[in-house]
Amino acid sequence: MSLEAAMPVGELVEELSPQGRFRTYPAYRESGVRWLGGLPVHWATRRLKFVATSRPSNVDKKSAEGEIPVRLCNYVDVYKNDYITPDLDFMQATADPAELAKFRLRRGDVLITKDSEEWNDIAVPAFVTQDFDDVVCGYHLSQVRAHADLMDGEYLFRSFRASGVAEQFQVAAKGVTRFGIAAGAIGGVIFPVPPLDEQRAIAAFLDHETARIDALITKKQRLIELLAEKRTTLISHAVTKGLDPAVPMKPSGVSWLPDMPRHWRIRSLKFFSNLKSRSFIDGDWIETPFITYEGIRLIQCGNIGTGVYEEQGFRCISEDTFHELRCTAVLPGDVLICRMRSSPRILAGRACQAPPLGNRMVTAVDNCIVKCADDVDPRLLVYQLSSKAYLEYIEAIARGGTRDRISRRMLGAVRLACPPPKEQRAIADLLDHACAQARALIDCAGSAIDRLHEYRSALISAAVTGKIDVRGEARAQ
Question: What pLDDT does residue 20 have?
Fold first, then answer.
């Protein structure tokens, strides 16, 4: 049965119902555990400490004289990977011989996060796929080793993903700004325990099924990448070549720009503004004490996406602060350019139009405001500031310490191709339509990925808690 062809992604989760793809066990009994409910009659429940040994690690990256060189499996290795394999880039560290003997990784170990900044990131598991002679379990992690006569390591790994099991760890986590779970609390968590041969069958079934789901997720992610690449290519071509393939071309005279239509001209970015007072200006230096949760909306760097406004966070300033700091008002349609790089993918120089949020707006000092001239379509300017060649150019000239920035003076000197107003509108109209189509397809693929992750989690929970009987399914694979 093809997971991709079986039914729309939005209906996949319903496969887990007793009337869906999988059958249930012939008979159940009450487990006595509220979150678990009914349990197959031949299954048991056990606290983790009775079926496995859990050791919280204190091996850190600090070195001490006389210690042995080792590689450290750390929090990120576990948090970002289901499996601990030899191809991971482990941190170099040292450990004393006793630590190496105690925390050396062995096939079948399950490593879990024992503390985190987010309570729902407690007890995220990863399975160790082979013996490692020189890799040890690092700090912020606990090493869980199943008792071979009672618990299969791969089944135990999958069980950590069951919603009821995960919630027990989250409830037991303590902290305010950082959450952690004590060794005793880890050992006290209740797990469903089928017979050992059945554990192995469930683990084998889940290995096969999650691999199929993950492959489909990878396909959807690749589709999103291709759609984004196609959109970027279309934007870059339209804002440098125009819409008429037969138009005569000329050198742009700008090192990073290709040839452009002969009737276009080059214009510095600052001259795309209307040249009135505060028409090309940085946002305002608004420090934390001035921020409120109601009043005039503060648009921050995180709100500036590449060509789109990103609604995230919600910060405001008061009317009094607006007048005291002599802030510049941002109007719907103004072009906002973020002068600071936020991440390797979120580059300095990215831009969007200010949206109609329904109330007055200001912006942060690392954002530049452009109030466009009458002969400039702000949509086209945003598309120009989203082109690959422009962003690569800004990336090359931006400077900074912890984060690269470009000054407003440098930004204003950036030279861009400028078509006649009528042609600007035609290009912007075409790109609006094409980008809306691409965005719809990207959103659809993103929604499919979300539902596949949902289905994956539900499938694991159903299998390891006995809500579906996969013994025959495992043999049929």
Answer: 62
Q: How many helices (H) and strands (E) does the chain have?
A: 13, 28
> What is the pLDDT, as a whole number, of residue 6?
39
CATH topology of domain 243-418: Adenine-n6-DNA-methyltransferase TaqI; Chain A, domain 2 (3.90.220)
Pairwise CA distance, residues 340 & 317, whole Å: 22
End-to-end CA distance of the chain: 11
CA–CA gap between residue 156 and residue 51 (Å, rounded): 10
Q: Considering Cα of 254, then 255, then 261, then 262, what sign does the dihedral take?
A: positive
Map out the domains of the chain as residue ranges.
Answer: 44-193, 243-418
270, with CB counted inside 10 A (0-12, 13-18, 19+), is middle
pLDDT at 370: 97
What percentage of the chain exceeds 90 in pLDDT? 78
Cα distance between residue 461 and residue 161, in whole Å: 7
For residue 80 the two structure tokens come to: 């970002």
Q: How many CA atoms lie within 13 A of 289 on its CB side?
A: 1
pLDDT for res 347: 84
Domain 44-193 homologous superfamily, CATH = DNA methylase specificity domains (3.90.220.20)
Inter-axis angle of helices 163-172 and 421-464, nearest 10 = 90
Note the pLDDT tens digit of each residue in 120-142: 899 999 999 999 999 999 999 99
The reported pLDDT for the residue numbered 284 is 95
Task: Round to whole Å and give the CA distance between 261 and 344.
Answer: 33
Given this model, what pLDDT does residue 307 score? 94
Instruction: Report the C-alpha gap between 344 and 342 in whole angstroms.
Output: 7
Q: How confident is the model at residue 425 (pLDDT cuts 50, 70, 90)?
A: very high
C-alpha to C-alpha distance for 313 and 374, rounded to whole angstroms? 32
